[in-house]
Specification:
Blueprint: H1 2-10, E1 23-25, E2 31-33, H2 34-44, H3 65-87, E3 102-104, E4 109-111, H4 113-117, E5 126-128, H5 129-237, H6 241-246, H7 248-255, H8 272-276, H9 279-286, E6 307-310, E7 315-318, E8 336-338, E9 347-365, E10 371-380, E11 385-387, E12 393-395, E13 404-410, E14 415-420, E15 425-431, E16 438-448, H10 472-492, H11 500-516
Helix pairs in contact: 5-7, 10-11
């Protein structure tokens, strides 16, 4: 140890205090690292020895080869020692130089026998190293099992996410396909309607053009005939008296025209109002059978693996094999599905066609979006209809086979009612005080029936010859006064005054508007 320390002192540079690197020697006998000496001389501007300050007259100091070999050897030994120390665990107490024999359970560290008797560990609990190692191996084995279990959960969740990602792409393709198909139906309907209306317009134009052409031909012939008569009579008028009077009888007969005076035909022009009046509204009304409204839209993200949704998410059927669907929290069960929109107030109803194994009602969800509670009725083929949860008998199927039924929810009063649509009779009633949003609930073979779209007319006002709009009541009063005045004149035998064409039209239009309202 002493020889090693002496060698380190001999191989240490006085400037950097580390083992020599490329050592050089001065005339005074002191040695330094080559780079350290250059930096010292650069900063001091004088070539003196850093230790004794003796001036060095030469430009470059000579190399100290012997010291270089000794320094390289010492540096190599130090590196090997550090590597060995790092590779070999320390088994000796750094305080007392004794081997570790015990494990302190309080401080969770290895100690030697001297440490055991020290004041610091006097009241602590100790175990032999082998016993402590066995105990901690058991604990770590348990923790390792938990970590592996958690790793499995993360891997499983990753598979679920991958599956959901693939399903999202599949949903995007299917939804885009359905959107394009529905809009294609609208395009086809609008194109057909456009073609039919253009065809009707062209037919009317052709008919009225033909009628006008025929009338034009007739008028042309009559004009030609009259022109010939006029020219003949004009020539007769220019003849001498004897010749004129000789043919006067035939000329007078020829001057007589029995053709009626031509009148401008009515209805000869195209009825533009018939073709473009309320065009968009009329087309929209014709689209009603095509655009069906469903009071409930099924949510495919809640559909079970045994169900197939069709007809724009209004019909569900049982599948012969399980579908590969992601295990998202919203999914209910194998054969159940929920409506997309929830109800938290008001009165709501929807009609459904059921067959075989079915169930209808409402359901509440938990915060994790899973089904918490259901209220409704169900049946399994020809068996009895039973209330969900309570298993209470509702009706016997052999007495009343249900095919079409209505579900009505009065959320505020907490009443859920069921009706037979075909027989128009009440079936069952469930009372419950709902505390959160509820969703329409369906199971197995059920089809949601569309509702009829009705329209209501808004209150209209009339305008008389550019004046301000007056209410229909005022129009009615004015029409009644006119009728009463005409009746009184008729009873007295007086002739009603002529109101003129515009006044008659005004009166008739007011009466027609009143009758329409």
């Amino acid at each position: 140890m002493a020889a090693s320390s002496q060698s380190e002192v001999m191989c240490t540079c006085p400037v950097c205090c580390d083992i020599f690197t490329e050592p050089v020697v001065l005339l005074c006998g002191h040695s330094f690292c080559k780079d350290c000496l250059k930096e010292w001389w650069r900063q001091s501007t004088l070539q003196t020895c850093p230790v004794c300050k003796q001036v060095f007259p030469m430009a470059q100091p000579p190399r100290n080869l012997a010291l270089k070999d000794l320094s390289d050897t010492l540096r190599q030994k130090r590196s090997q020692g550090a590597a060995a120390a790092a590779a070999t665990p320390k088994e000796v107490c750094s305080l007392h130089g004794e081997r570790f024999r015990l494990f302190c359970q309080d401080d969770q560290q290895l100690i030697c026998l001297v440490c055991r008797d020290a004041q610091k560990h006097k009241t602590h609990t100790f175990l032999p190293i082998n016993e402590a190692a066995e105990e901690h191996r058991t604990k770590l084995s348990v923790e390792l099992m938990h970590l592996k279990s958690k790793l499995g959960s993360f891997k499983e969740q990753k598979l679920v996410c991958d599956k959901m990602s693939s399903h999202v792409k599949f949903q995007a393709q299917q939804t885009e396909k359905e959107i394009k198909e529905d809009f294609q139906k609208l395009y086809q309907f609008l194109r057909a309607e456009e073609a039919a209306r253009v065809d009707a317009l062209r037919k009317e134009v052709a008919l009225k053009s033909d009628a006008l052409n025929i009338r034009t031909v007739n008028l042309t012939a009559e004009i030609s005939s009259l022109t010939d008569k006029i020219q003949t009579i004009e020539r007769e008028l220019k003849t001498e008296d004897f010749s004129f009077m000789l043919n006067v009888k035939s000329t007078l007969e020829r001057s007589q025209c029995k053709l009626p005076v031509p009148e401008t035909p009515s209805g000869a022009l195209v009825d533009e109002g018939k073709h473009v009046g309320n065009l968009l509204f009329t087309v929209w009304m014709k689209m009603k059978p095509l655009a069906k409204h469903s009071p409930v839209t099924l949510d495919p993200n809640t559909s079970g693996e045994q169900l197939i949704l069709s007809e724009n998410l209004t019909c569900l059927l049982e599948s012969a094999k399980s579908l590969r669907l992601p295990s998202n929290p919203e999914r209910c069960g194998f054969c159940t599905v929920l409506g997309r929109e929830s109800f938290s107030s008001g009165i709501h109803s929807w009609d459904a066609e059921v067959e075989g194994f079915w169930a209808v009602g409402v359901a509440a969800r938990t915060k994790q979006q899973s089904v918490e509670m259901t209220w409704g009725i169900y049946a399994n083929g020809p068996e009895d209809v039973i209330e969900l949860n309570t298993e209470k008998l509702v009706v016997r199927q052999r007495e009343l086979l249900l095919k079409k039924m209505r579900v009505q929810l009065d959320y505020d009063k907490g009443i859920l009612s069921f009706f037979d649509l075909e027989r128009k009779v009440f079936i069952h009633l469930i009372k419950h005080r709902f505390t959160g949003p509820v969703f329409p609930y369906f199971r197995a073979t059920v089809k949601i029936l569309p509702t009829e779209v009705s329209m209501t007319k808004t209150k209209m006002t009339s305008t008389v010859h550019g004046s301000e709009p007056v209410q229909a009541e005022a129009v009615q009063a004015l029409a009644a006064l006119r009728v009463a005045a005409r009746t009184a004149l008729a009873r007295t035998g007086a002739t009603p005054p002529l109101l003129g064409v515009n006044s008659d039209i005004r009166e008739s239009s007011l009466l027609e508007q009143h009758q329409k309202l």
